[in-house]
Specification:
Radius of gyration: 17 Å
Shape: globular
CATH topology: Rossmann fold
Oligomer: single chain
Distance between the termini: 11 Å
CATH class: Alpha Beta
Low-confidence stretches: none
Largest sheet: 5 strands, parallel
Number of helices: 5
Strand order of the largest sheet: 3-2-4-5-6
Number of strands: 8
Strand content: 25-35%
Structural class: alpha/beta
């Protein structure tokens, strides 16, 4: 297989996109009262913290941030690894009656979000749950849609979207990887 990468967003575009999403969250929720942000490990957690930091910059308010590891909620757990690595979920605040903004990097089939919703409901009963994603690439298998989308990016199933963040990958960028069959 040959791989071909196309750059979709650089660090400046990602920052502008997160700033827009942060403004939209504040507008829709009429401020930060009862607002909390929960990121899906791993890149969703970094994005959640960045959004919380931007909300503080815009509004001056601290918003609680949590991190969820949905590994044990996956419906394909036995298919991904015999011994999957499970990290901790860290939601150090009561989610009852909170407006939760769930954050992930890429929305694809919707299965990751379903897992996160299951885990959130196990933690309590929020007032509502909203979804923010940096990229929505389509191909939904479940009736899930994002409330806040950085970029809608129709893709084929042979394409992958990689979100690379400085905290995990050393730099901020989003690339589209097209996997083409190797010719013989």
């Amino acid at each position: 297989m040959l791989k071909k990468e196309a750059n979709l967003m650089d660090d400046k575009m990602i920052k502008r996109t997160l700033m827009r999403i942060s403004h939209e969250i504040l507008e829709r929720n009429k401020g930060t009262e009862d607002l909390a942000i929960v990121g899906i490990r791993c890149r969703g957690a970094y994005l959640a913290q960045r959004i919380a930091d931007l909300i503080k910059e815009i509004d001056g308010s601290d918003v609680p941030v949590g991190i969820m590891d949905i590994t044990l909620y996956r419906d394909d757990l036995t298919m991904i690894d015999y011994c999957p690595v499970v990290h901790s979920t860290k939601v150090d605040f009561d989610i009852d009656d909170k407006k939760i903004v769930l954050v992930d990097d890429v929305l694809f089939t919707g299965r990751t979000i379903r897992c996160a919703l299951d885990e959130l409901i196990d933690l309590g009963r929020p007032q509502n749950i909203q979804l923010a994603v940096l990229i929505d690439r389509g191909h939904r298998e479940l009736p899930i849609r994002a409330d806040y989308v950085g970029k809608n990016l129709p893709t084929t199933l042979k394409e992958n979207v990689e979100v690379r963040l400085v905290e995990e990958d050393g730099k901020d960028e989003i690339v589209l990887i097209n996997q083409k069959e190797k010719r013989q």
